[in-house]
Amino acid sequence: MFSWDDPDDRVAIVQMDAELRHAELELISAQCATHQLRLRFSIDDLARFGKREVLRKAIAAATDLNDYYSSIEKLIPHEATGSIAGGMLLSEEQISHATERVLAYLREQRDRHYAAGEPLSAELKSLMQPFFSPGILDRVRVVELGGARLSNPSFYSEAKALGIANLPQVTHMASLTFVDVVVFNEKITERDLFHGLVHAVQFQILGPERYTRAFVDGFLRTNSHFTVPLEAHTFAMESKFVQNPAEGFSVEEQVRIWVRERRY
After folding, report:
1. What distances in angstroms separate CA 123 from CA 6, 126, 188, one per listed residue?
2. Whole-angstrom Cα distance, residue 97 to residue 216?
3. Is 174 exposed, middle or buried (0-12, 13-18, 19+ CB in 10 A)?
4. Which of 88, 238, 254, 262 might form a disulfide with 163, Cβ 3.0–4.6 angstroms?
């Protein structure tokens, strides 16, 4: 067993942590690839038509990894229950507080920008109609900031103090959806509008409270904005839209499927 008091062990521990970080990145990559499978194919189809040898190897690898990391988890010295963020364990109270802060920010920004928002133009509605219900297209308002940009939320400093890293940089995002208002840091594009409208559908179906908790839980679990299930699903549908914008599909139906299957 290593000892931090032994200089040779300290070197080995640093190397171990570096290799652990590399393994984590590889696992996140595998998780993203699996999400793509979930989006495109049902479990039944994979079981019936997937190559048996490939499936068995994938299942064996996943099972071995689960057993290995579960055995480590049992030995981690902590008493409280919660989620790990940036290497730190957060209590349920801290997670609830974080969720409240994020929800308050979303509502405050929604109220701030709603009055300046405009309904979708007839042209944009026509482009989005094969993917979204008339209710969403009529209700959502859009705002172009025209040179200004959204700033990062004030609670970021508090989150960083808790050890939470990789927070999404709002200033650099193309757009952000605040319940039923999509704010664009730059010009509205079809792709960015589609992305923002998907989030509006998620807000509508889940409700702001459940949406926010799902986002916070997903971020604390994956430590990456892009692998939060809400975002991963949105990017997957956005990619499908970009590849073939003439082939419509119901975003609402896809979101409801994920809600039923508890993927968020």
Report:
1. 69, 5, 13
2. 10
3. middle
4. 88
Residues 6+ apart with CB under 8 A from 167: 152, 156, 159, 160, 225
Residues 227-260: tens digit of each pLDDT: 899 998 998 899 899 988 989 999 999 999 999 9
Q: For residue 225, what is the DSSP state?
A: G
For residues 102 and 164, which has the higher predicted lDDT (pLDDT)?
A: 102
Judged by average pLDDT, the poorest of 39-43, 46-50, 122-126 is 39-43
Q: Are 130 and 255 in contact (CB under 8 A)?
A: no
Residue 106, both tokens? 């979303």
Alpha-carbon distance of 28 to 153, in angstroms, equals 26
* Rounded Cα gap, residues 264 and 261, in angstroms: 8
